Amino acid sequence: MDAKSEILSRIRTALGPDRTPVDVPRTYTRTTPETDDIPTLFATRAADYQARVRRVTAQPTLAGPGGPTALIPFDPVPVAAAITDLLKTTHVRSLVVPADFPEALLPQDNYVIRRDDPPLPVADLDTTDAVLTGCAAAIAETGTIILNAGPLQGRRALTLIPDTHLCLVRADQIVGTVPEALSTVDATAPLTWISGPSATSDIELHRVEGVHGPRTLLILIID
Description:
The protein is an alpha/beta fold and 223 residues long. The protein has one domain: NagB/RpiA/CoA transferase-like (Rossmann fold). 20% of the residues lie in helices and 24% in strands. The protein has five helices and 14 strands. It has a six-stranded parallel beta sheet, sandwiched between helices. The longest helix is centred in the first third of the chain and has 12 residues, at 3-14. It is globular, with a radius of gyration of 21 Å.
């Protein structure tokens, strides 16, 4: 028997009717003992990963008889102003947004804005300076943003091709730990986990950013 046949034989045996179930412990730590200020911890950890982080306060808004708005449960005016100010720290002149991104949150300046509806070809995304999205969740302990192609996020290509990603993170979307975050999203679905700008290092540890995603990550935390 050659090596390949032996490996496949062992796999078939392991998957056979006589296999013994393995009890996997799930007693994960679900609290962050360092601080009660979860948004501040997230901001600190995200900045450690060389993301540019800013915070803005926006009053909650209601739609109808007391129910929160579907996509932006906050006053969009200060948030749109903060988005404009944050983009001014870069050389961004063109911007792509998901199909469902609200007009009220678009930057208040002369940007070329492309909405991904219908889906833009890769060539158009590649020539767009930045993408503006929301997120599904964020993790304070690791400074990580999670995208699941849900509201305000668009498809995965939007956040992988443009050179700059500006992500809106509501304070109530930030949890302390990875297990907590996984309880808020479908862990079996395709997820994008972002911890700082896209970067890699060669054998001499020379860091290169923007190799397989945006080289600049801007995060706006909405309190």
